[in-house]
Amino acid sequence: MAPAAPAVPTAAVKSGRDSNFKDKEKSGSVRNSNIVAAKAVADAVRTSLGPRGMDKMIQSGNGDVTITNDGATILNQMSVIHPTAKMLVELSKAQDIEAGDGTTTVVVIAGALLDAAQKLLVKGIHPTAISESFQRAASQAEVILQNMATPIDLANDELLVKLATTSLNSKVVSQHSWLLAPMAVNAVKKVLDDSRPDNVDLKSIKIIKKMGDTVEESEMIDGALIDQKTMGRGGPTRVEKAKIALIQFQLSAPKTDMENQVIISDYAQMDRALKEERQYLLDLCKQIKKSGCNVVLIQKSILRDAVSELSLHFLAKMKIMVVKDIERDDIEFYSNILGCRPVASPDHMVPESLGSADLVEEISTGGDGKVIKVTGIQSSGPAVSILLRGSNKLVLEEADRSLHDALCVIRCLVKKRFLLPGGGAPEMEVACRLREKANERGGAEQYCWRAFADALELVPYTLAENAGLSPIHTVTELRTQHANGHANFGVNVRKGFVTDMKEENVVQPLLVSYNAIKQAAECVRSILKIDDIV
User: Where in this protein does the record put region Disordered (predicted)?
Assistant: First the structure.
């Protein structure tokens, strides 16, 4: 006969139930703390959304001050410790890499979706159900955006400038958008590669920042700019009909591979050593001169001096202009724009590897700042240089970031040639259409879709709030217009009410909103899936 099962004490059953219950509570509290941390980050950047958004002053540990309202920059410089809050920093970085603009928008949408998810969790809907519903709602949102977008022709410069201006409107340098917007459009058009028509390499656009003057003095150079001074030493600072060599070897006495000492016992040996060095350098300089080169750009070297006094003296006598310390990362850019091949050894110095230009000159940029300007380049590849000016460091840095955003907006259009109205119109349209679609859904999914739609309304709400309008009144008015089929209506912060954004010339690329909703939904899904931090 089988032994009777031991009686389980009632206390043990009770404690087992309790531990089960506590575990459930724990995952809830972890999820809550994650959501609260991520929302805190989103609320920090929310006030800087839109053309009337405020700027943030960020002081880093070493005392550097940055003034900006670019979402990615703010989050990058904030010292965020909570791991979930760091996910939002990564989110804005991802948006910055993919679209370049809308970095604040993506964080605001993610914050709103987390808020919505928290309310749904309180109602007792399972996190997996919420995250899957959000995924489906985001896919539907992409379809809605695609339907309301209008195709664009890249030859229409006027429209492209309007797009770049919309991007610059929310920046500190918005009053200079009349200059920076056309500059961004022309720069991207110059570097468009016919072999890859649907992408633009922004590395081919070199922005050189110099203090002094105002932003209005900035210009796009039809040629190349080199952010270095000439070496001087009696050499020319202006060369006409230039033949330019980009060399990757050093014009200084060679070093042995290992540490060693040569002991010289008398003057004759010392003389011989110096003579040898002199002869070696003279041969190098003669080889450079023989190829017909009269401007030498030398790559930065970490092993030994790129040039020695003696070689500079020889080159100055030969009337060759010398520029040293070309960064390794810029070698490709300069070889592209100057049409020359980088030369790695003196034996390869042949006329074919030189680039030719009408004029190479050193220009002063106020103070002791100087740059070298190369104009009239004969066989220039797809590359362009921009000289940015600014009265102080903060304005200059912000102008650089703003111009980068404008360039990215034009790049977005090259990738996906569609336009959307701005001013919170796409988000509102998606919210209205999703609410209609939600009615076709059953069960908890209907709640989730509605919550997703409500969350997107935070974008127009915040735009109105930052502009000092009544957000509830504005968003209600906007919802009415969209329900009546006016898909292009958005928040007009200048006039203070709801108008047609296309007529106001406030337009943005499809890729920015498309990506923002997609990336925000993905980020929220991964935050909802976390139930414990170990």
Answer: 1-28
Contacts of 268 (CB under 8 A, 6+ apart): none
CA–CA–CA angle 33, 34, 37 (5° rounding): 85
Nearest residue to 389 via CA among 366, 361, 372, 405? 366
Tell me whether residue 305 is one of the annotated catalytic residues.
no
User: Which of 96, 115, 330, 405 is labelled catalytic?
Assistant: 405
CA distance 384 to 173: 22
Q: Smallest Cα–Cα separation from 389: which of 363, 411, 412? A: 363
Q: Which residues contact 367 (CB under 8 A, 6 or more apart)?
A: 211, 212
Residue 70 is a catalytic residue: yes
Q: Give 225-278 pLDDT, tens digit per residue.
A: 888 888 777 778 888 888 888 888 888 877 777 777 778 888 888 888 888 888
Determine what percent of the chain falls in helix, strand and coil, rounding each to the nearest 5: 50, 15, 30
* 44 alpha-carbon distance from chain centroid: 20
Chain centre distance of CA 426: 23
Please identify which of the residues 66, 68, 73, 104 carries the catalytic annotation.
Answer: 104
Tokens of 98: 């993919």
Mark whether 105 is an active-site residue: no
Give the whole-angstrom CA distance, residue 114 versus residue 148: 26
Which pair of tokens denotes residue 41?
């980050």
**Whole-model pTM?**
0.80
HEC-encoded secondary structure of 151-213:
ECCCCCHHHHHHHHHHHHCCCCCHHHHHHHHHHHHHHHHHHCCCCCCCCCCHHHEEEEEEEEC
- Is-catalytic flag, 499? no
Distances (CA, A) of 66 to 16, 104, 315: 55, 17, 43
